[in-house]
Amino acid sequence: MSSPQLIDVPELAPEPAIAARLSAPAGPARPLLIRHADTSVLALPGRYCVVYIIVAAGNAAIVDVGSAEDVPLVSAGLDYLRVSPSAVAFVLATHLHFDHVMGADVAAQAFDAPLALGRVSRLAVESGSPIHWPRRMGTLRAIPGWVMQGAPTISGSDRARGLRFGFPWSTNRFASRLGPVLDHQQPVPGFDGWTALATPGHSSDSICLHHADARILIAGDSVRNFRGGEWNALLDSAQQYESTKALLRSLPVSVACPGHGPVLAGDGVLSRLATMGFWGTRQATGKTG
Ligand SMILES: [Fe+2]
After folding, report:
1. 192: CA distance to ligand 1 center in Å?
2. How far is the CA of 97 from the centre of ligand 1 (A)?
3. pTM to 2 decimals?
């Protein structure tokens, strides 16, 4: 079981937002190719979150397209990977938060691919029920993260087409067709070695994708890296999140792909994540993890 190879891809770096450069100790997200014998993952710094392209056996999955503005970067990423847009099996959202999903419909249509969702996201979409959000004070915790993401404003194209997706009032009616439903601990169809995990806590519908042999975790917002690698302080259910943290810590992971910030690497990387206080400050020793 060898660790994946990590390759910087500076040619795919967008101009990092000044706010992210100044405020996030880990710095802005950077484009990175994670290469393993059986699969590759390309991290692309999107407007509101990191977009990941997973490639396995000639299939590509595009994970978390936060903005319609990210679609050209995804196309450039597919070019870099020498993967045809027709090989895109699906666009996937790790959870229905606007910063991860406003560009998903546009991307699914651009690549003529269906939209794959976790079971809870899919039920919300089919019933037209918005997913539950943290209460008002809880959402204030998003403010430091928004600054460290680079304080992005909602783009014109997202205002035009994205506002129906991922907000507390959104019914998430996608125009694109719906594809596979990803269930807990089930294989991701078409992507040998990849398993979906239901990881509620940050949101009720959060999922992660894990490749045990490659020891890669696509974490969505269950992990973020604004400050060197931390558990998310923005929670819908602290109780569910504790179970999720225990599950994730039990997995073989040497590369963790967070929803925000640079990719985290190293053996046991998830056991070193910090826990943050209300405003994203590092909690005192003894309360971490
Ligand atoms: Fe989120």
Report:
1. 27
2. 5
3. 0.94
